[in-house]
Amino acid sequence: MFEKESIEFAKWLESIGINPIYFMTIFWAVVAYFEYEAIEDWEKSTMREKIWVVLAVLCFFIGVVMSIVLLLSLVEYK
Prior knowledge:
Layout: H1 3-15, H2 20-38, H3 47-77
Helix pairs in contact: 2-3
C-alpha cells in the first residue's frame, strides 16, 4: 500500500546520511517507550494498548536483528 512512499522515504534518509534500518529501530524503541509510559496501569490497560506496546517492541527487536545482520554482512564484504 505504501511501498513507493516507503522506498522514497528510505532513499531520502540515505541521501541525508541516515541509515533507514537504524532510524526505524530507534523510532520503534521510542514508540514502545511512549506507548508503555502512556499505560498507567498495565494490568488495567486494554488489549489494544497492550498490542501496540508489544508490536512496537517486536519491531524494535526486528530492527536490532536487521542491524546486526547488516553489520555482519558489511564485515564479510570487506
